[in-house]
Automatic annotation (TrEMBL):
Pfam families found in the cross-reference section: His_Phos_1 (PF00300)
Record-listed E.C. numbers: 3.1.3.-
The name this protein goes by in its record: Phosphohistidine phosphatase
Top-level taxon of the source organism: Bacteria
GO MF annotations in UniProt: hydrolase activity
Keyword entries, A-Z: Hydrolase
Amino acid sequence: MPPPPSRIFLMRHAQSGWAMPGQTDFDRRLDGQGQAEALAVSRRAADAGFRPELVLCSTAQRCRETADAFLSAFGHPPDIVYCDDLYNAPPAAYFDRLSQHRGHASILLIGHNPAMEEILETLAGMRTAAEAVPDGYPTAGFAVLTHVGDIAEEGWALTAFLRS
């Protein structure tokens, strides 16, 4: 079995507007602030060298637009896989997706809360997560988790957290 990634990035979609009449939650778009958030955080991630090998992204419109901003921050964007099963999914769905892509050195998950916050808590620990995001996982929040310890262990450290 290939090793797990040595780095996992978690990005919550940027701020979206309310659903328009007749529009579903799935189709909500980023609002102006969300577009600015996504681009600002993505540029900071690129400037810091936080380039994933692979992006796994919810197919919800607001996640796709967040991914577009992220990919635009890189000269040669990483590969991306859009995943229907990550829309409003529990953390287990994200972990299942990660396990399907073992062997990549670094993976970015772009998705929704509360899953992003719960994944951060699971990997980095409740205390670390509470210190990093005391008011909850912000829109366009970007966590950098680095694998620590023996490959057989599932030890992760939060090494950076970017926000707009």
